[in-house]
Amino acid sequence: MIRIAYTSDLHVDYSNENRELVARLKESAVAAKPDVLILGGDIAASPTDFGWALGSFVEVKCRKLVVAGNHDIWIESKSDILNGKDSGAKYRQILPKVAAENGFEFLFEKAVIIEGIGFAGCMGWFDYSFRNPKFDDTTTLEQYRVGKWQSPSSGKNFLWNDMQYVWWLKDLSAKMSGFTRNDLCLSDIEISTLMAKSLSQQLDQLAGESVRQIVVVTHFVPNRGLLEYRDSIPHDYFNAYHGSVEIERVIRSNSKISHVFFGHSHVAKDVTIDGIRYVSRPVGYLGAGRTVTDASAKLAIVEI
Ligand SMILES: [Fe+2]
Ligand SMILES: [Fe+2]
Fold first, then answer.
1. Residue 90 domain boundaries
2. What 3-state class would DSSP assign to 248?
3. Is 211 left (phi over 0), alpha (psi -120 to 50) or beta?
4. pLDDT at 182 over 90
5. What proportion of the chain, given as a percentage, has pLDDT over 90?
6. For position 293, what pLDDT does the model report?
7. What is the mean pLDDT of the segment spanning 210-233?
8. What sign for the dihedral angle of Cα 20, 26, 31, 32?
9. How many domains does one find in the chain?
10. Distance of CA 147 to the CA centre of its chain
11. How far apart are CA 296 and CA 289, in angstroms?
């Protein structure tokens, strides 16, 4: 048996409450005596804060795995893009290095085997395939790509922030003349495909090994059935930014996958769909009256 402790969406750069929770989460993780501690992404936009959060778990003596979330690859200033620190460089080089320096294995290119169980993972992404098709007559894919909405009820404007803060350049030597994100960057569909391929490759690596079962970790929501559809907008517009059927298909096509840990939606779940158990236990945004009194409630303990 292997004991996994899991949490996600620490958002340590969001509020003092988020930041202060980390020490208490660490205490809970130490007390839980896990064999594996997994963080499911959305830790902080700055690599320094990301590293601080991971390093806070140094007293938890076990294997530690992490995937990045969308907030972790945000660009803090446009000058970073020009200085080789685009979202792709953060994802492929900067964050894996910071993770390793703080005792964590960054899941993306290489699967991990711990006590006969395979672990594969990646951030995942969204390709609007989790949108509510009921609105397809009035909402085009182009509108989802731009990610700006006006609420029909309140008139309030919404923006999906990744459209502003994620700059994953196709070509690092690209010149920023014109500075158009859509010309220079991978599309959401391309990022989703990259993630699905990475997950497939890790599952292929594990197919050649004698593993009893496989645990997958993704930041984004790994199955459409985990989302709530209200048939109302703007709520259902945002489901478009929660996952990708391409990644869902990769997960569903591997019969050894028994558990999937995920984050992003800030709604805790523990649901079994077609024989796979999906677990999320996010911290989410604290402050302004939202506090966590019992940190252990933000740490899922799953024995496999
Ligand atoms: Fe989050
Ligand atoms: Fe997220």
1. 3-303
2. helix
3. beta
4. no
5. 85
6. 92
7. 96
8. positive
9. 1
10. 19
11. 19
Instruction: Convert the pLDDT of each residue in 274-288 to its tens digit.
Output: 999 999 999 999 998
d(CA 251, CA 256): 9
* pLDDT number for residue 42: 98
* DSSP summary character for residue 70: G
What token pair was written down for 20? 């202060």
Angle in degrees, CA 126, 129, 132, rounded to 5: 120
Cα of 262 vs centre of ligand 2, distance in Å, is: 10
Is the distance from CB of 5 to CB of 34 less than 8 angstroms? yes
Would you give the DSSP letter of residue 226? Answer: G
pLDDT at 208: 86
pLDDT of residue 154: 81
Distance between CA atoms of residues 250 and 269, nearest Å: 21
CA distance 280 to 9: 10
Ligand 2 centroid from CA 164, angstroms: 14
| Residue 70 CA to ligand 2 centre (angstroms) | 5
Domain CATH code at residue 271: 3.60.21.10
Q: For residue 70, report the distance from its CA to the centre of ligand 1, in Å.
A: 8
Contact 39, 69 (CB under 8 A): no
- Angle at Cα 261 formed by Cα 294 and Cα 164, nearest 5°? 90
The two structure tokens encoding residue 236: 């259902």
Ligand 1 centroid from CA 212, angstroms:
31
| Dihedral angle sign, alpha carbons of residues 90, 94, 95, 96 | positive
Handedness of CA 209, 210, 214, 217 (dihedral sign): negative
CA dihedral 221, 226, 231, 234 (to 10 degrees): -30
As residues whose CB is below 5 A from the ion ligand 2, the structure lists: 42, 69-70, 264
On whether the CB atoms of residues 120 and 202 are closer than 8 A, the answer is yes
